[in-house]
Specification:
Helices cover 42% and strands 10% of the residues. It has seven helices and five strands; from the N terminus they run βαβαβααβαβαα. A five-stranded parallel beta sheet has the order 2-1-3-4-5, sandwiched between helices.
């Protein structure tokens, strides 16, 4: 029997934001093939370093892990965007330090997950739906720093990526500026179900990294 486990934060653990309506884990279970199981270990508010604790509860029969985390780490670093600086370069230096720490934590987390030797997929951090166009521009631009880490580390390990930026691409996909709505959850669940049930045949990006000539 195949058993899908969702790790990470409120992108998966979104029940509190869709009261009385289907949350992501419910929708994943509804879309998986007959006989498949799905377990939610993701916790609203989790950061990268919390995933190790979630893994302690990993069911013994886990066959697939889908992980979405990093958005709360990015939120925790958002203060740098509003600090007074003398130049754009000074801001970029501060962001580079944040990126390096994020990369260290994300790499360590992926290495820990991969030690379990199950099929793994990761998600990017989606763009969200800010209350103003100006804030949305800031958010989208700043998140590229974190998503670059996620994609690089996934490509380095040959892991498939669910790009939530392309999936949750409409205001209706959000229950508030940063949480998925029922519609957004439906899209996320469909992507998860398609990926894990595809036996590797799903359309995916290919990245060539060999230096051979």
């Amino acid at each position: 029997m195949n058993h899908v486990v969702l790790l990470g934060d409120s992108i998966f653990d979104n029940a509190a934001y869709v009261p009385g309506q289907p949350d992501v884990i419910w929708q994943v279970r509804a879309k998986l093939p007959s006989g498949w199981r799905a377990t939610l270990l993701a916790v609203d508010g989790a950061i990268i370093r919390d995933v190790e604790g979630q893994l302690r509860n990993l069911p013994a029969d886990t066959s697939h892990i889908v992980m979405s985390v990093g958005g709360n780490d990015a939120l925790g670093a958002a203060h740098v965007l509003f600090e007074n600086v003398r130049s754009v370069a000074e801001t970029l230096v501060k962001l580079s330090i944040i990126r390096e720490q994020f990369a260290t934590d994300y790499r360590r987390m992926l290495d820990t997950i991969m030690a379990h030797e199950v099929t793994i997929a990761v998600c990017t951090i989606y763009d969200g739906c800010a209350d103003s166009e100006a804030q949305q521009r800031v958010n989208v631009t700043a998140l590229t720093i974190f998503n670059d880490v996620i994609t690089r580390e996934a490509f380095r390990r040959g892991l498939p990526i669910i790009d939530l930026r392309l999936i949750c691409n409409e205001p209706a996909d959000y229950a508030n500026p940063i949480e998925p709505s029922v519609l957004g959850g439906k899209k996320i669940a469909a992507a998860i179900a398609e990926l894990v049930a595809s036996d590797g045949s799903f359309p995916r990006s290919q990245v060539f990294t060999s230096n051979a000539v």
